[in-house]
Each structure stands twice: as structure tokens, then as C-alpha cells.
Amino acid sequence: MAALSALHRRWARVVRDREDGFTTVEAVVVIPVVIIMSMISVQYVMLWHARNVAEAAARDGLRVARGYQATSSQGSASCTHYLDLVANKMLGDRTCTADRGTQTVLVTVHAKVMSVIPFGDFAVDQSATGPVEVFNGGG
């Protein structure tokens, strides 16, 4: 009878604790997935922010380059200065180009975005265009 009672207690413990060891396996599988998903989310936010910063820099360069008697190099310098102040470390290997024609100005920003994902290579390209300001001579 004692053997039967011991067997019953053992069976009850096995039924009650049937998930022993599985939580470790689940953690080994789930934790890396959660970390990778978090890194992807952070990278997406960084790309979104970098795009907005690059667009703002292009608009700042446009504001300067389209001014009366301004030059395209002044627009490029303004764009570069904006990026130096706002996103010095996040946007690397960046170029700001301004093309001032007789009617319109086009400012383009190209930059590589800092990556939190291993082996990630992300870049942003933004541009802004607008008319050249002209002096009407009053009348």
C-alpha cells in the first residue's frame, strides 16, 4: 500500500509540474526574437528621423540659396551647417548639393544613417526645390 501511495504522490507531482524545463527553452527562443524586433524598431525610428532631418536641412539650404543674389555654394554651406548642428553623429558621409538655375533652385541631401542592426547599410536622400527670388525694381 505504501508503494502505491508513493507512486500516486509521484504521479501527482509529475502532472502538476509537467512544464519544468520548458520555460528555459522558451526563454532561449523568445528573448533573441524580442531583442531583434526591438533593434528593427529602433532602426526604423532612426531612419524616419534621419529622413526628416535631411529634409529640413535641404529646406534650410533652399531658403538660403534661393535668396536674391545668393549662390548655390551658400545654400550647400547652409545645408551642411544645419546637418553639423542637428545630426552630426547620426548622419555620416553626407553630401549637400545645391543647383541654382535662372528660375529654380534644387538642394539635395544624401547621407548614411547610423545603424544599430549588424551589417545594416541605410541611407537617406531628400531634396527641396523652389523658385529663385528676383528683384522687381519697384513700380
Class from secondary-structure proportions: alpha+beta
Distance between the termini: 117 Å
Question: What sequence of helices (H) and strands (E) makes up the elements?
Answer: HHHEEE
Return the average pLDDT rounded to an integer: 89
Q: Report the radius of gyration as a whole number of Å.
A: 30 Å
Number of strands: 3
- Beta fraction of the residues? 15-25%
Which of globular, elongated, flat, extended, rod-shaped describes the shape? rod-shaped
Strand order of the largest sheet: 1-2-3
Q: Characterize the largest beta sheet: strand count, sense, and whether it forms a barrel.
A: 3 strands, antiparallel
- Percent in helix: 40-55%
Number of helices: 3
Give the low-pLDDT segments: none
Please provide a written account of the structure.
The chain has 139 residues and is an alpha+beta fold. The protein has 3 helices and 3 strands. It has helices at residues 2-16, 22-65, 72-86; strands at residues 91-100, 104-113, 122-131. Strand 2 and strand 3 form a beta hairpin. The longest helix is centred in the first third of the chain and has 44 residues, at 22-65. This is TadE/TadG family type IV pilus assembly protein.
